[in-house]
Amino acid sequence: MAKLVVSEYVSVDGVMEAPGGGEEFEHGGWTFQFDRGPEGDEFKLNELRASDALLLGRVTYEGFAAAWPSMTDEQGFADKFNSMPKYVVSTTLEEPLEWNNSTLIEENVADEVSKLKQELDGDILVNGSAQLVHTLMEHDLVDEYRLMVFPIVLGSGKRLFGDTSDTTPLQLQKTKTVGSGIVILTYQPAGEEAEE
């Protein structure tokens, strides 16, 4: 059974999309002023290597699909990202999707993601995709949160954990500081067994 992992860049005040919106903000454009260093790069590469699939919302998918197919790197990050299966949650996109190995999920998101978790073995990785993350949280489908917290307060913008009437206790599993003061926090929903 696959583990669903939400991996996000966030500011100290929990913003994942800076004021003004747009794909460069949603995908961490405000993070470029910070160096995550070799350890941060290794963390992201290992995270991707452990993943069998990407699960993305429409806005994140469109940003990634516009950029990643033309990218290359020596570590194999781009090759893995481009070749792995991608599942895209959207009611406005139509198949065939332009980025290779992309499948559209148009309805019954919770049911379809539950099926994917049963069918796959490695991690299912979610990046960006705030609205999708909220839906996954509502249905208790997230197994792990990996937050790369950048040392900046943005003040306003779309927050990963927006206003909600639900309380979601989390259990801290790991912390790691990388690069120029970036802290990686790994959480699981409280009550789930901690991984060794």
Let me know the largest β-sheet.
8 strands, mixed
The portion of residues forming beta strands comes to 25-35%
Query: N- to C-terminal separation?
Result: 17 Å
Helix tally equals 6
Decide which structural class fits the backbone.
alpha/beta
Helix content: 25-40%
Strand order of the largest sheet: 5-4-3-6-1-7-10-9
Average pLDDT, rounded to a whole number, is 89
Strand elements, count: 10
What is the helix/strand order? EEHHEHHEEHEHEEEE
Radius of gyration (Å): 16 Å
Low-confidence stretches: 21-27
Q: Which term fits the overall shape?
A: globular
Explain the overall architecture:
- With 196 residues, this protein is an alpha/beta fold.
- Helices cover 28% and strands 29% of the residues.
- The protein has six helices and ten strands.
- The strands form two sheets. Strands 5-4-3-6-1-7-10-9 form an eight-stranded mixed sheet, sandwiched between helices. A two-stranded antiparallel sheet has the order 2-8.
- The protein is globular.
Features:
196 residues; two-stranded antiparallel ribbon
List the helices and strands and how they pair.
Blueprint: E1 3-11, E2 15-17, H1 23-26, H2 37-49, E3 51-57, H3 58-67, H4 77-83, E4 86-89, E5 102-105, H5 109-119, E6 123-126, H6 130-138, E7 144-150, E8 158-159, E9 170-178, E10 182-189
Parallel strand pairs: 1-6, 1-7, 3-4, 3-6, 4-5
Antiparallel strand pairs: 2-8, 7-10, 9-10
